[in-house]
Design goal:
This protein is an alpha+beta fold. The protein has eleven helices and ten strands. The model has no long low-confidence stretch (mean pLDDT 90). This is HTH araC/xylS-type domain-containing protein.
Length: 268
């Protein structure tokens, strides 16, 4: 494991090493983390499936940000630099996939739906020894879980992050205050760029318009707040909605769940 962060100590790296080098196609690693913990940027020599049976994770790669509630999991290919932050206490259940197994899943990061079956298989794999019997229960669990991951529905939980310094000023401001109502002309004063330039940069670097990017950021932050127990009325305000029903509709269209269901995610 290569690190550039501030939390992954030599002891922690030594703990992970057997899982990164195990001879089996899939091995599971279970660990609970306190609220506010951040790993800093690091990478692994094996692909991963990151899942929290309870709690909410934020995962950032060099060009994207992902929110990972307990109804989902994030697949990361081999050697992708990433940082994980815990929004509240997190019970993480993580899979490491050997190269041949990872090829069966994909070659790009993606957030997938975690069905009740997939959740239980992840937990079961984490309970297996690192070198499970090649003709035993571990083998059958590994084959089933690879099939379930490949069949799972990808979700729009990726928030693209720009590289342009001017755009980063806008993005940073909106991520700090998602309810900020300034328009692109007003943000232009912060970024020292015209609204036309910023609009073009948003399209080029994120694939989204300014309004689309802001809406996705707001809804993502509202999801985070809801999973921490915040009332829907306050979450709606974070997302820039004056109407709670309108917020509920937009939230459900984007995430496939109601704000009330999102609040219950913290209990797994």
């Amino acid at each position: 494991m290569e690190t550039t962060g501030h939390f992954l100590s030599p002891t922690r790296q030594a703990e992970i090493l057997p899982f990164e080098t195990a001879p089996r196609s899939v091995v599971g690693y279970a660990r609970d983390y306190p609220s506010g913990l951040s790993t800093g940027f690091h990478s692994h020599p094996r692909a991963q499936l990151l899942h929290a049976v309870s709690g909410l994770m934020r995962v950032e790669t060099r060009g994207s940000s992902y929110l990972v509630p307990p109804t989902t999991a994030l697949f990361l290919p081999t050697d992708v630099p990433h940082a994980v932050s815990m929004d509240g206490p997190v019970a993480m259940r993580e899979l490491f996939l050997r190269e041949d197994a990872a090829r069966r899943v994909g070659d790009q990061p993606k957030v997938i739906t975690v069905s009740g079956l997939l959740r239980e298989i992840v937990i079961a794999v984490c309970a297996e020894p690192i070198e499970w019997e090649t003709q035993g229960r571990g083998y059958h669990l590994a084959e089933l879980i690879l099939d379930e991951i490949a069949r799972s529905t990808p979700l729009p939980m990726r928030l693209p992050l720009p590289r342009d310094a001017r755009l980063l000023r806008v993005v940073s401001g909106l991520r700090d205050r998602p309810d900020d109502k300034r328009n692109l002309e007003q943000w232009g004063e912060v970024a020292n760029a015209s609204s036309r330039t910023l609009a073009r940069l948003f399209r080029v670097e994120t694939g989204l318009s300014f309004r689309q990017w802001r809406q996705q950021t707001r809804l993502t932050e509202a999801l985070s707040a809801l999973t921490m127990g915040m009332q829907p009325t306050r979450a709606a305000a974070i997302a820039g909605f004056d109407s709670v029903p309108a917020f509920g509709l937009a939230f459900r269209q984007f995430f496939g769940m109601t704000p009330g269901q999102a609040r219950r995610l913290r209990d797994g």
